[in-house]
Every structure is written in structure tokens, then in C-alpha cells.
Amino acid sequence: SPGSGLPEGSPAEYAAALWDFEGRGAPAWELRLHQGQARGAVFPGAARTGGFGFAIDTGPGGADADAQVHVRVRPSTDYVLEGHLRARGLVSAGATVCGAFFIGEFDYARSDNLDWNDPVVWHRDLPSATDSPGEWVPVRYEFRTGATTRMLRIAASLGNWGFARGGLDFDDVRLLEVAHSSAAASRTGGDATLSGAASPDRALRITHVTLAGETRRCLGARADSEFEVRLRVPERAELRFGIGVEEPGWTVPGDGTRFEVLVGAGSAVHGVYSRHLHPAGSNSDRGWRDGAISLAPWEGREISIQLRTRASRPGAPLRDAAGDLGVWSNPRVVVPRSPSEEAGRPDVVLITIDTLRPDHLGCYGYERPTSPAMDRLAAEGVLFENVYTTVPRTSPAVASLMTGLYPRAHGLTTLLDSLAVRHQTLAERLAEAGYSTGAVVTNNVALRTGLGQGFHTFIDHADVWVNDPRTRAEHLAAEAAEWLAAHGQEPLFLWLHLWDPHFRYLPPSPHDRWFAPGRRTPFDLYQRIDRGELTLGELYFQGDLSPAELQRAIDLYDGEIRYTDGVLGRFLDYLDDAGILENAWVVLTSDHGESLGEQGYFFEHGEYLYDSTLRIPLVIRAPGGAGGGRRVSRSVSILDVVPTVLGAVGLSAPVGPGMDLLAGDGGDVPPREALFGETGRRFFPENPRRPVSGTAGNWLAVVSGGWKLIRVPTPGGAMRELYDLRRDPGETRNLFDAHDPRAQQLEEKLDAWVASFEGGGEAEAVIDPESAARLRALGYLD
């Protein structure tokens, strides 16, 4: 509008300038009523101690009411939202969401940034006013805005998707910008660590950014930002990095971003790198651009390295519109390995195959030839015969694999949770030790789960649905091989997660007929589900299948394993041809198994705790296959992978429940006192054996000395099952007797384990529409 001080131009230019904070004053609050069908009033609150306040009322007749407070914020900045909230006479009359508060981050680069349903991200874990009706509830919420966030919406919902009566107050609202004096380090390279400080108003942030399908760990900065580090340069050192402009900046008006690297030595400053990226002007600038600078001129000297991100045209009206989105990927000082160092700095290759039962592999005694490549790997490594996961769901189990902690300790207990940054992962430990870390994954191990912590490159196909070629093992293995080839001079940690054996069991030809070449049994199970004649819950828990249909499903599951094994064999051949196997530890395991009709549970995992879903394979191959061909019979855990890998590469293991399986003189693993398991979230009402809702209905299990005790919560008290796993590996005979000393001892171990975690878990998260769509595609919702 005239007199606003904003530049004239197109609506896109106006939108970009509107949310541009450079040179502007403090953020201004703006109150809006999202009307919908609401008949309530929104009015300023009387702040009790300062700040801002607002309230919502539905009116005497009841309705729905939503209020939003908009405030401009800076991108890539830490904030604390403080305030108090209160419910007044709140009564839900069928409303789905009632008394809830959310924070939405919105992107200045989109023309629809006021769309209620189109934020960059929603923060949904603020407390609800219904937690303490009538009382003021304090709110304190810490978060960091995204790289493109320019506006926050603090939204209060009273009776959304339904009717309610009453009112909500949100008062003393303060949004505080948190100044940090330092930015996080990227990683160690050789004897040099790339770390340093940035001024509070130019703080950088660690993030993950996807460009051209490749996700990398990055330092992100607004235009005109600087990041300086000091170090003594080792021999043969190189500075390596990538640069890019995040996708929301590709169409923003402006003329791109300039990236500069300067080296300071004594009183001299040398410009050693400068490149301008202009994604809006050229598709060639829409991916990663890698750089490598030799530090040989400064070997043995103390230097400073400065990374600068600059607007391309200083003084231009929209000079930082795209510049705010510039990122540096994995800046690090690298000392390439010499031949003498090859044996002392082993690579690590971790391969996880989703939903893989050990008893369907030849190396574990299966009669079908499903796994010749895995059998060969086991013959060259150490095979652990009795391995247990912590929870038979993907992301909680993988979080245990990466942290060495039980889900009750690391907090990622359901498929809807994410791993908190305070928990250090295996990738973070290895990155700190100078490893270049990369992951190629699919299924529910996306960046949103927090499992990308510590990975410099994270190629994530988690949102690509079932049977898409991009989720196939051969595609993922090819991407992993490309990553390895691009990082051959550094010690490497690669995580490859394949998921083909997961239901729906759709192996590509000829593996769909591999184990039933002449079978003519009609198999229309998938068609019945798609036509709505059979729900997933009915299939999983009622299993209305003929013996021939059940066998056909098992044939397909085995076909998926054989297909995945073939891809794995070719990948191992590539590692061998590239010389990686000679210097790499290879770990093969899974997140959980799969029930194939045992205990009346079909083609699923997560809701029961029998060995069909709780046991997993584990094979560890030393560099060059040294000491291979050994089998270990004692019970071990997925928790043991972290300390074992760290021990194998000469690093100390964190304190936790896991143990180094290869420690000592290579003898057998010492006996475990007990291992514990827990079910995941319940998704299906058809489950007859999960009568208690929420996390309180989770099954618990303890395995010790060849015996397993399972505790099943019911409204009338817990039921228990006791199995002798040596004599009854199929868990078909429940031997529980409350007076049996063995059962009592296991009960005591389980009670002590539960008591060791304060609170015993949190309330389950609400399934938002996006999560519901993802879980439905994965077969976890009808």
C-alpha cells in the first residue's frame, strides 16, 4: 500500500518483502479470527504481567471457534514462547479437537502463506487447556524456526471439527528470541575439527536439506552471514563442502546467492573460493555443488577458515530474498587416507532389512534357498542365533539400533514420534571421529523421525509408497553404491535400509513365483482388501484364509527375501570389487520380524510379543572376513550394535544397557541377565488381545535363561504367559503359574525394569491426516 515503505512490484515481490526482516524493527503482533462457522468473539486479553493476550468464546449456543495470532519472526532462529492458558466452562459437544493450541510456521516465499492448512510445519505438542480446566496453566515451548519461516501463527482451537461450549484464554504471551554465542560444529577430519562461533544475530543452524533428491546435513545461514573457524592444518589436508540454495528459494525474486571461502594466515587473508548460485535463473543451480580446496600451502600453520554467504547484489531491494535459503553441506577438513592408514581406519557398512525373520534364512536353518548371499556373509562373519529387538515396530526399533537405548529411554515409542536431539546416535559418534556418514533409507525412518542425526547425507524415500520402483532394494543399493564411490578417500559409515519383505509381499518377477512355480491357487487377498471386502484389521487378527492362501502369502514373503538377497549379493560384490570389504566392518540385521499366522496373527508386527516378530537376525563380518564362521547361541539385543561397532573401530562405547559383542579375546558372549520388549501402538480395533487403549495397553516381555514372560494388560488386571523357549520355540504352551518361582523371578525383573523409567511413557500422539495417510499406505491403518 502507498506509504508502507515496501517496494513496488509483483505480488510475489511484495510477499517476499513483506516478511523480510533485514533492517526492520521488532516483530508486530496481528490478531485474526478464523471464522469458519464460528459465531464466537475474539478480543484482546488483559495481560496480567505484560505481553499479549487473547480469548475465544463460542457464545451461549455453542459452536466452533478458532483464533490465530500472527507474528513475524526470523528464519533459522531459536525462540521461546511463554504464556498462560485457561479453559472457562469448556464442554465438548462432539468436537474432535477441543481446547488445543498449535504453532504453525509459514513460508514468506509462497503466495498462499495465509492458508490455514499450508504451513511449513505445525508444532502440535503444546499443552491443552483441558489438562487443567479453570486453572491457569503455564506454557513454555522452545523451538527453532525453519530456513524459510517468516511468520508464526499461534492458533487456538475451540471445538474444531465439531461443536463445543465455553471459552479459552491465552494470556501473558511472550515470544523471546534466544541468542546463541556459538554454532554447532560439523565434524572432525583427521586431527582438525571444523568448529567455531558466529555472532548472535548471525547464528547458523544444523539442518537437513534435500536438493535434487539428495538430503544432506547442512549449516544454513541468511545472506550476509559468516562462519569462522580456527585450526592447525594437518599434512595433506583438504577443505571439503557442498553449497546449495533450498528449494523454496528457487522461484523467489532476487538474483541468487554468492558463497565465499577465505583463509586467514597471519595478517594475510586469501580468497580461495567464490561461486554464485542462481536457481531462479538456471536449472543447473538447483542441486548440490561440491567443492574441495587443498590446504597444502598452510600445512602445520594456524589458520582461520571463513565461510561467507552473500547477497549477490548488495543494496538491491530484494537482496536477500533467495539468499536466506543458502546452505553449506558438510563443511569439513579431511585428511585423505594413505595406504598405511587403510587397516587402521575401517569403514562401517550397516545393512538393515525390514521385517526379516531369521528363521526364514538358510543360515538360521530354513529349508528353502531364500538367502544364499546372506548365508555367504554369515559364513565369513559371526552369526548370533538368538537376537531380540526392543519393540517390533520400525522407527522405535531403529532408534534403539542407533542409540543403544530402550524406547522408554530414547522416547521414540510409536511410529508418530521423533528422536530428541539430546540422544546421541551411532552416526554422530562416528562423524565426530572423522567418518563421512551417509544413509539410504525408506519406510518409516524419515528425517521427521529424527533418525537422520549425525548423517552428512540422508537419502530418504520414506514418503514413497508401496511397490514404487524408488523403494525397491535394487534402486536403494545403487544409490548407496554411488554415495560410496563419491567418498572413497574418507573413512565411511553407510547405513542402507531395505524394506522389500514388508507386507504387501509384492516381489518383482520372477520372484513372485520363485517358490511356487506350478501353483495355480487363486490369490485375491489384495483385491479383497482394495474392494473393501476385508479390512486390514480383520486380515491381521482373524485370518479368514484357507491353508492354500496362507501358504501362497508365505511363498510371496519368501520371494521378497530371495529378491532382496540377490540385490544384497550384488551389492556385496560391488564392495568387494571396490576394495571396501577388505577394510570394512559389515553389520546385517533387521528392525523386527513378521507374524505369518502364529498365535492367530497374520502378516503383521508390533501388537504382540511372540518370537515371530521379536527375534531378528544379526551377522557381523570383520574386515577381510577375519575370524569368520563362528556362531553365538546366547541371547543378545539390537541394543548391542552401538557398543559393538564403536568397539570395532576403536572408540569408547556410551554407558547403557548394550554390550560389545566382540570384546575380549573373541570368546563367546557372556550371559545376559534379561532382555526386555514392548509392543508398539495399537492401530486396529479388531485386535481381540489389546483391550486397554493407549500405551497402558502395551504388552511387556522379559527373556532370561531361555524363558519368556509376557504381561498382557486387561481391564480386570494383567494376564501373563510363560514359555520355555528351548522346548517350545513356537510358544504354543503357556506354562504360567503364579506360584512358580521362575515366573515370580521374571515378574520381579520386569517390574524393576518398568520402574527404572520415570512415568513409564507418554500419552499417545494424535494421528494427523498426513501421518494417517502414510500409515495407511504402509498397512498400519484401514
- End-to-end C-alpha gap: 50 Å
Q: Largest sheet, if any?
A: 9 strands, mixed
Count of individual helical segments: 13
Question: What value does the average pLDDT take?
Answer: 76
Structural class: alpha+beta
**Percent range for helical residues?**
10-25%
**Strand content bin:** 25-35%
Any idea what the shape is?
globular
The number of strands is 36
Give the radius of gyration.
28 Å
Give start-end ranges of low-pLDDT stretches.
1-51, 108-117, 180-204, 316-323, 759-769, 774-778
Ordered list of secondary-structure elements with their pairings:
Layout: H1 11-18, E1 29-34, E2 41-44, E3 52-57, E4 65-72, E5 78-93, E6 97-107, E7 121-123, E8 137-144, E9 149-160, E10 163-178, E11 183-189, E12 192-197, E13 205-211, E14 214-220, E15 225-232, E16 238-245, E17 257-265, E18 268-277, E19 289-294, E20 302-311, E21 326-334, E22 347-353, H2 372-379, E23 382-388, H3 394-403, H4 407-410, H5 426-432, E24 436-442, E25 457-461, H6 473-486, E26 492-498, H7 525-530, H8 536-542, H9 547-577, E27 584-589, E28 595-596, E29 602-604, H10 611-614, E30 615-616, E31 618-621, E32 630-637, H11 641-648, E33 675-678, E34 700-704, E35 707-712, E36 719-724, H12 741-755, H13 769-777
